[in-house]
Amino acid sequence: MKKIIAAILSVAVCASVCLSAGCGGTGNVSTDEFAYRTEEKADYMDSVYLTDYITALGEEELADFAAEGNSNRQGTGTKGIAVSSYYTTRVNGEEAYTYMVFTAETTPHSFVLLDVSEDRFEGGKTLEIELSATFDVEKAIVLPEKLGVEPTVSEGRTVRFTVSDHGTYTLIVNDERAPQNSYTLFVRRPEKVEVPYGYTLIEYKPGLHFVDGITLTSNTILYLHAGALLVATGEPGPGAGTGTGITGFINASNAENVKIVGHGVIDLSRIPWGQNRGIYMNVCNNVEIDGVTLINSATWSMMYSYCSDLTIRDCIVFGCRQNSDGYAICSSRDVVVSDCFARSGDDLFEVKTYGDVAENILFENCIAWPDNCRGFGIIQETNSDIKGVTYRNCSLLYQLNDWSEKMASFVITAGESGNVSEILFEDCDLFYSSVYAIRFSVGANDETSGVSDFSNTITDVTFRNCDFKYPASSRGIVKFRNVTDNPSAISGILFENVTFGGVKLTSFADLNPTYEGYSAEETPAVTVK
Prior knowledge:
Structural class: mainly beta
Shape: globular
Largest sheet: 13 strands, mixed
Distance between the termini: 51 Å
């Protein structure tokens, strides 16, 4: 499984080619429709190798690396990724490349990027995973639990489990309510790239690339090959700025037909805190983001403003810095975010508005680990209406920090002047939350700006077929906050076939509700069935 790939330390292997109908392109396959198409892979399994720029750490280096995430949340790192100090991995007996990244709250998080073709799971075939830990392991679980993967522990430091499909498998060892030395196996289909004639193809091939920044224009595809490691230099790139001038390390504005594809990895640790987002797209149409991994963004990892026909799939976000949000969908329409993972120090799968409405947005099969903030929902900024947002089959693994009563795992907030309606959480699950499992809030708060007269509402919010295993907040499980003059500002709330701690809700009292802004005679309009 291991590939020997020389690290290219000074010159980036990057090509930009305009693929017209006359040239036939530079890809593996040329057809009447596509100038470039990657070959279909069969009987294929490989772990992604990220060059020997990524090294193992000594004992003191490991302590410094862990502290970089836990205590330097607004600083600038040098490398956001290292060879795992906690695990080695074997898949069907072959060693896989195991790395680790900063976290905001715990020891570094280890992971493996594994590309596996469809046929490797046909006919009941499986992957046998064996982890050797550098510390004692007494017990282990794999999350989300609904995957049905049951690991075994033997010899004190060996964990084994079986994988029968593509997916994201997170291993938690020893204390399941205080996770340390966490590990995630990403089992993904090999990258598939198709470039139509007339598009510009920008490629970063396997190897090490130091990059100031990338600006994309219409009809452009950025292909980050598996094994490509892009390291942001920390120098001001084409989208650098501060305050309202912040854009992105990868930036597109007023563009259409833009794609970022491939299983390459981008380390943003060198960018000073607050200077640049990871990916920023503004007023773009027909956008596709597929397979990219972002590490330690200086501020929001991905932000999409005033975009339409946006698809984000199979992406990974790791971060530790304050404001290193995951997937921020802002004033955008017709959006699908699917099969994505985020663990970071701020909000993760979120919808906001800054002057135009947000509607028809789907998050599906996504996994969140919000170390410090909120996991899924309508987070805060609602300058215009938000309507028709669905979270389906999404899993929240851990929310570990209860520093503010504003924090919750699932949130519905109308913090400015817009209304929020038709929000559905379906077949979602929560493993552990140290704050409210669910929080509704309408009206001004300490994050509100520029609004004094609130007449907005939260209506028609449904939680259906959801399971919350450890909704552990001492403040209560569900918070209802209404600080407007309208006692009915939160209404039409439905809990249908929802369980807390393994017990199905049958009454409003089962929510263990907490109130703010309600009189003794007032309660929000909630139905439980």
